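Students often ask why we bother encoding 3D structure as a string. The short answer is that it lets us treat folding as translation between two languages. Here is a chain of 182 residues written in the first language.
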Amino acid sequence: MQKLMAHLILLDESGFLLMPNLKRTWAPRGKTPIHYHVFSREKISAISALTVSPRRKHLSLYTHLWRNDISTEEVIEILKPLLRHLRGNIIILWDRASIHKSKLLDEFLQKHPRVKIEEFPAYAPELNPAENVWSQSDNALSNTSPEGLDELEKMLTVSIRRIGGSQKLLRACIRASDLPWK
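And here it is in the second language, the structure alphabet:
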């Protein structure tokens, strides 16, 4: 019996607001740090796909940023280049979000029989290693006050490139999840 080899895609979505993400920081005694910002509900929506190759266990990170809410169309938009780039069988593991359940997405996936979909259990973000990409990005953006979406997008892009360019940081995303890895 031959073992099935497949690329694993761990997919997740997130949003980044213009409001500062404040974390504990150092400051001179008696000088409370103050972050000024303009209140805005504008945001950058993001999708990340953390991929694991079947043979070498090489990790890669694919992301896409939008200035609107994420819908099924955006999920398909990130899947198209992944399916062109990754050869062989593919297993996509994602949460049970409503954007992953639509007729449009079902029709798209039917055109790609080499793709198998698996879902994380409901309300279990701690299992998805792609969630930790967003945790690392949040940490990189903490205690900053971007003045607009352009600046937020640049800061987020720098953070994502740093994470995606490091096998060590990508493996940290895997290890930080509660998935049992061997």
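Translate back mentally: The CA atoms of residues 29 and 86 lie 53 Å apart. Keep this in mind for the problem set.
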